[in-house]
Every structure is written in C-alpha cells, then in structure tokens.
From TrEMBL:
<comment type="function">
    <text>Probably involved in cell proliferation and cell-cell interactions.</text>
</comment>
<keyword id="KW-0812">Transmembrane</keyword>
<dbReference type="InterPro" id="IPR004032">
    <property type="entry name" value="PMP22_EMP_MP20"/>
</dbReference>
<feature type="transmembrane region" description="Helical">
    <location>
        <begin position="165"/>
        <end position="187"/>
    </location>
</feature>
<dbReference type="GO" id="GO:0005886">
    <property type="term" value="C:plasma membrane"/>
</dbReference>
<feature type="transmembrane region" description="Helical">
    <location>
        <begin position="121"/>
        <end position="144"/>
    </location>
</feature>
<feature type="transmembrane region" description="Helical">
    <location>
        <begin position="27"/>
        <end position="48"/>
    </location>
</feature>
<keyword id="KW-1133">Transmembrane helix</keyword>
<protein>
    <recommendedName>
        <fullName>Epithelial membrane protein 3</fullName>
    </recommendedName>
</protein>
<keyword id="KW-0472">Membrane</keyword>
<comment type="similarity">
    <text>Belongs to the PMP-22/EMP/MP20 family.</text>
</comment>
<dbReference type="InterPro" id="IPR004031">
    <property type="entry name" value="PMP22/EMP/MP20/Claudin"/>
</dbReference>
<dbReference type="Pfam" id="PF00822">
    <property type="entry name" value="PMP22_Claudin"/>
</dbReference>
<dbReference type="InterPro" id="IPR050579">
    <property type="entry name" value="PMP-22/EMP/MP20-like"/>
</dbReference>
<feature type="transmembrane region" description="Helical">
    <location>
        <begin position="94"/>
        <end position="115"/>
    </location>
</feature>
<keyword id="KW-0325">Glycoprotein</keyword>
Length: 191
C-alpha cells in the first residue's frame, strides 16, 4: 500500500476565510457595510418589538406583543389595553426581547473588539451573538405565525384581520441578522 501524504500548505489554503485576502480598502468598506447592516437590523428589531402592529383589523384596531388597541374617532387617539397573557404570547415577548439584547450586546462587543483586538483577529463572539439574535427572532416570529389564534383568542375574528408591519419586520430581520452574524465571523481585523 502506498502511504497517503498531504501538504499542510494546501489544506490551510483551502479552508481560509473568504474575506482574509482582501485589500485594506475592501475590508474598510466591508466593515462599514457590516456596521451599517447591524445598526439597521437593530433598529428594525427594536421597532418590531415595541410598535403596535403585529396583527391589524381594518386599520382601526390592532394588536401587538404588549397591547390591544382601538382607534377612537371621537378623540382621534388610540385606546389601548394590555393583551391577555398566554404562554405563547409570553414566549414571543421573551424571544423578541432576547433578540434585541443579543443584537445590542453583539454591537457593543464589536465596538470593544474593534479598538482592543490585535491585528488579524476574528470577531467570533460578535458573530455568534448576532446569529443567536437571528435564531431567537426566528423562533418568536414562527411561534406567532403558528399560534396566533391562541395569542389573539379574546380579540375579534382573525379572518377579518392580517399580519401587521411589525410582524413582517421581525421576519425580515431574521435573514439579515444571520447574514451579518456570518459576515462578522469571517471579518478579520486589519489595521
């Protein structure tokens, strides 16, 4: 039998990060893009968690993770009451808040690593926090999708309503958070 030999330089070259051989200008643009993407997804995630439009009935009544609101034509204001707490609603609330926390921690750690990490270091922890934020937002949106009847049980008929823009924002955040997390993992610090 012939012995199998492998050159270490060939193996290491095949498993390099796709961003490792970029010039400093490209890395600076990539850094700016990832930072901007992170801030945009963090803002979208915060809006999706705090705004009042996860489920909408005819534009005059809506429900979110915290309140059920009706628009009063006489006063021109929204009248809101706390949503009935169900286990599914609490799960969605906790997961969305966790997603905001993971993404916020990820950004703060990224800023810290940007100024303290040595040249050539990778942003693994930042990327993992971003991926966890994406997974928790995914779980929250999926639970709300599958269990909206239990979550909105005391509200009007669901057939008369539809998902609101905050629900859609939560779903849009999922791939953006996952993509930025993967980009952080491959991003290498250059000086």
């Amino acid at each position: 039998m012939l012995p199998i030999t492998c050159k270490p330089s060939v193996i290491s070259a095949t498993f390099q990060s796709p961003f490792s051989d970029r010039d400093p200008v490209q890395m600076a643009y990539l850094l700016m893009f990832v930072t901007l993407l992170h801030l945009i997804t963090l803002a979208m995630l915060f809006i999706a968690t705090m705004e009042k439009s996860w489920w909408v009935w005819d534009g005059m009544e809506n429900s979110d993770l915290w309140y059920n609101c009706r628009f009063d034509n006489d006063t021109g204001t929204w009248l809101c009451a706390s949503s009935k707490e169900t286990e599914w609603l609490q799960s969605v609330q906790v997961l969305m808040v966790l997603s905001v926390v993971f993404s916020s921690v990820s950004f703060l750690v990224f800023l810290g690593q940007l100024f303290t990490m040595s040249k050539g270091g990778l942003f693994y922890f930042t990327g993992l926090c971003q991926v966890f934020a994406g997974l928790t937002a995914f779980a929250a949106a999926l639970i709300y999708t599958l269990h909206n009847q239990e979550i909105l049980q005391d509200s009007r008929k669901l057939t008369e309503g539809h998902f609101g823009y905050c629900f859609i924002l939560a779903w849009v955040c999922v791939p953006l958070l996952l993509i930025s997390g993967v980009m952080y993992i491959h991003l290498r610090k250059k000086e």
